[in-house]
Write a structure and sequence with these properties.
about 200 residues, 8 strands
């Protein structure tokens, strides 16, 4: 169920969010997570609908970051929430049993506290420091990532400062996939960058 590559949009990148999403999907990112912390709800919902229209023909799914009610209202494929976004059980109740629900995890303690039966996957990180999220927790490194993954039965997606050459280490840590922001969003050719991530993953 978890794809090898999830692209997370970058509001500060030179490409528009729609361009980023479409190019990443064309390069093989089967999930695109729409993340924009400051966009008003109405504009965010409109953008999300446009993004779904572009992604659907490419076989990619839209995951909405943080905004539970928008994910529910537009029928997005999934929702990804952080530790400060409320109880995952409440989010699951709002989006229904069929939608994908992901939760960000920064420590083994947080992994142990995940309520059973409501989350589909964990986003684990940051592996490295990353400029795309200035308020991130201390980097886990490969050892910290592997430790958290070993403590949960849920599929895990690594995130945080990852590049295309990290596929082997991410797989070695036990992750089902990797979530990538700037290495794709700020690439000269985002489609080619995404393609390299997928190729490297498949070759490991």
């Amino acid at each position: 169920m978890i794809p090898s590559l999830c692209f997370v949009t970058d509001a500060e990148a030179p490409w528009t969010l729609l361009e980023q999403a479409e190019q990443a999907a064309r390069g093989g990112a089967l999930w695109v997570q729409l993340r924009h912390k400051t966009l008003a709800d109405a504009a965010f919902a409109d953008l999300a609908c446009q993004m779904m229209d572009r992604l659907s023909p490419l076989g990619a799914k839209l995951i909405v970051n943080d905004r539970t009610e928008i994910a529910r209202a537009i029928g997005a494929a999934g929702l990804h929430i952080g530790q400060s976004d409320g109880d995952p059980r409440a989010a699951r109740a709002r989006i229904g049993p069929e939608a994908i629900l992901g939760l960000s995890i920064e420590s083994a303690e947080q992994a142990a506290a995940v309520p059973p039966g409501c989350v589909d996957y964990l986003g684990v990180g940051p592996v490295r420091a990353t400029a795309s999220k200035p308020d991130h927790a201390p980097p886990l490194g490969w050892t910290g990532l592997a430790d958290i993954v070993s403590r949960t039965a849920l599929p895990c997606m690594a995130i945080g400062g990852l590049g295309p050459d990290d596929a082997t280490q991410v797989r070695r840590a036990g992750c089902a996939g990797m979530a990538v922001v700037s290495a794709i969003s700020r690439a000269t050719n985002p489609e080619a960058a995404a393609q390299t991530f997928v190729q490297n993953w498949n070759e490991t």
